[in-house]
Automatic annotation (TrEMBL):
PANTHER family: REVERSE TRANSCRIPTASE DOMAIN-CONTAINING PROTEIN. This is RVT 1 domain containing protein. It comes from Asbolus verrucosus (Desert ironclad beetle). It comes from the Eukaryota. The lineage of its organism: Eukaryota, Metazoa, Ecdysozoa, Arthropoda, Hexapoda.
Length: 132
């Protein structure tokens, strides 16, 4: 089995500011070193803190939530809105959390922002009053 050098990268996980780097070669071609890679939908960085992954995930979820709100503004059935939220947004937020589980409060608050926005919208749809 041969490996495609263009799809191979080196990512060294370390807490050191001056890590020892080794140049890897595959089929007489150097393998590029990166500080950030995306594998199976999860963004890994050299510190394994997943800040980049969480911020990209929140941006995607907020865009998708905006799309759901814009396209479903005439819907009156709240269970349909909940189903759309769980299908398109929450499933993406919960994908592979065993690997990237948020441990920092900053990450948790960013993820909870999406849920709070959706809950405020549900409250608005049910009562007609936008909560503060």
């Amino acid at each position: 089995m041969s490996l495609n050098v263009n799809k191979c990268t080196v990512l060294s996980y370390t807490k050191s500011k001056n890590p020892i780097t080794y140049n890897y070669v595959l089929n007489n071609a150097p393998v590029p070193r990166r500080t950030l890679i995306k594998d199976l939908g999860i963004t890994f960085d050299i510190k394994l803190n997943f800040n980049n992954h969480v911020s990209n995930l929140v941006i995607f979820a907020l865009k998708m939530l905006g799309f759901v709100i814009r396209t479903c503004k005439e819907f009156t059935n709240l269970s349909v809105l909940k189903t759309l939220y769980f299908t398109f947004i929450r499933s993406k937020l919960e994908f592979c959390t065993l690997i990237w589980f948020p441990i920092y409060n900053k990450q948790k608050l960013a993820l909870e922002l999406v849920e709070r926005k959706f809950l405020k919208y549900l409250n608005y749809k049910s009562t007609g009053v936008w909560p503060p």
